[in-house]
Design a protein that fits this description.
The protein is globular, with a radius of gyration of 26 Å. It has about 475 residues and is an alpha/beta fold. Strand 3 (about 130-135), helix 9 and strand 4 form a beta-alpha-beta unit. It has helices at about 5, 15-20, 25-35, 40-45, 60-70, 70-75, 105, 110-125, 145-160, 205-215, 230-235, 255-265, 295-305, 325-330, 350-360, 385-390, 405-410, 415-425, and strands at about 55, 80, 130-135, 165-170, 195-200, 220-225, 245-250, 270-275, 290-295, 315-320, 340-345, 365, 400, 430-435, 440-450, 455-460. This is F-box domain-containing protein.
Length: about 475
């Protein structure tokens, strides 16, 4: 049967169809649409399926193509530009259009031409939602000598009417030579109306950074790194809709200002902050909507024990020291929604057994030294099976985020049998995290159960202080 007879959209004028399909955000939805019929496939592949996410390094032919085809560039929602070879923790594969690109015609373009094409392409992306720039000022970047490159790109982003997520990533690049201009009118400082902002660079002009923050009063997610004595850069701002805050402060002298900022933002649901001064405490009634708390043990316990917010629906809490007082707090509060716990230290295996009694429904658990006897356990002669038995008491555990268990499983012989025992006794367990000392990387062991056999693979992971 003719596709046109069974699918009315195929009979719609092409310009109208393009407008409709251009509003579809998800590539997955586009692929599903393409699978409906031959007519659907011809409408979306490759004109839409290849034009939602762009993740590239030095790619002059891609930018030339997008500059010449604004009708295709307009549909791109997410852009990531790498200014240097991929960093280990930001090594997602590149993604860019292929089918309609003439790679030969523009691969040898001059740098100024490429920069102009980048800006023209970005200007055409009328539905652009997120922009991430990795290692922008890296000395290995192709356009470091062209200072207008940065200001030109930032100017386009400043003028964007659709951009809501902006992220600069260069904290892992050694020897960065340049930084944003310390000028009031520099376009970076005026990129506004964002919902999500991530700027973890040190040494940025405080007045400019403050202007950048103040340009987005409706921020919902903020990831920021503050220099010593630089808390005022963001504590002077007010974000009534702030939900998630990932904060890295490099000194303790102005951390009280951060506490006051937190107390003025009851909307925060997700807080990541490790203060240098562990004696700091939030006032009673602070953060009533908090669901996830990644912080120091002192602040975590103080927040959890706050008698004025007894119904706080906490889902994740970290850096707990499982002493008797902490266990008493956990036993006394509403933890019905708690599914993710990060333990800093614990006296002995019995305290983990007690934890399993209190929270049998945990799905995520982090205990960095779990698998190695503590001082209290030195004379108990625990073996690996004892630790597996304790872990098995968390019947819903899916992810052991960090522990010493994997290293202990590999010690001695019969590693395969030990792994099979772990998989059998912890049937919900999917991942074990550990730090690979040879690679100096955090890794996940991914368990695969198939036809009664257990296999595993290893994946590099991004620790959450790098995320947003």
């Amino acid at each position: 049967m003719d596709d046109n007879l069974v699918f009315p959209l195929a009979r719609t004028p092409l310009e109208v169809t393009e407008l409709i399909l251009g509003r579809v955000e998800s590539r997955r939805d586009l692929v599903s649409f393409a699978a409906a019929s031959t007519a659907c496939k011809e409408l979306v592949i490759p004109r839409h399926t290849e034009y939602r996410t762009l993740r590239v390094g030095h790619a002059p032919e891609i930018w030339a193509h997008l500059a010449q085809r604004p009708d295709l560039a307009r549909n791109i929602r997410h852009v990531t530009i790498r200014g240097a070879p991929p960093l280990k923790i930001y090594s997602k594969p590149e993604r860019y259009p292929v089918t309609l690109v003439d790679a030969v015609a523009s691969a040898a373009d001059e740098s100024d031409t490429v920069i102009a094409n980048i800006c023209e392409a970005l200007r055409s992306m009328e539905f652009l939602r997120s922009f991430t720039w990795i290692a922008a000022w890296s000395p290995m970047g192709p356009y470091l000598d062209f200072s207008h490159y940065y200001s030109d790109v930032f100017q386009v982003l400043k003028e964007s009417k659709s951009l809501v997520q902006f992220k600069m990533v260069d904290k892992m690049v050694p020897g960065t030579l340049a930084r944003p201009a310390e000028e009031e009118e520099y376009p970076l400082w005026h990129i506004g109306d964002l919902e999500s902002l991530s700027v973890r660079q040190l040494g940025w002009w405080p007045r400019g950074l403050n202007s950048l923050l103040c340009s987005s009063p409706n921020l919902q997610t903020l990831d920021i790194r503050l220099p010593n004595d630089g808390s005022h850069v963001f504590t002077s701002c007010l974000f009534p809709q702030l939900r998630r805050l990932n904060l890295n402060s490099t000194g303790s002298s102005s951390e009280q200002e951060i506490v006051e900022f937190l107390q003025k933002h009851p909307s925060i649901e997700d807080l990541h902050w490790y203060p240098h001064n562990d004696t700091l405490r939030l006032g009673h009634g602070s953060l009533p909507n908090l669901k996830c708390l990644i912080t120091s043990s002192g602040i975590a316990c103080a927040v959890l024990a706050d008698p004025t917010v007894p119904s706080r629906a906490i889902e994740c809490v970290s850096q707990l020291s499982l002493d008797d007082s902490t266990l008493a707090i956990l036993d006394a509060i509403d933890t019905s929604q708690l599914r993710d716990m990060r333990v800093w230290r614990y006296p002995g295996l019995e305290s983990i057994d007690h934890l399993a009694e209190l929270f049998p429904n945990l799905t995520h658990l982090e205990i960095p030294n779990f698998g190695i006897p503590t001082r209290q356990d030195e004379n108990n002669n625990y073996v690996i099976d004892d630790y597996i038995l304790t872990l098995a008491k968390f019947g819903h555990l899916e992810y052991l985020i960090d522990s010493a268990l994997w290293a202990m499983l590999l010690i001695g012989g019969e590693a395969s049998d030990k792994i099979a025992t772990l998989a059998a006794r912890c049937p919900s367990l999917q991942r074990l995290g550990y730090f690979n000392t040879q690679k100096s990387e955090y890794m996940d062991i991914v368990l695969c159960r198939e036809r009664g056999k257990v296999s595993w693979s290893e994946e590099m992971v991004e620790k959450e202080w790098h995320r947003i």
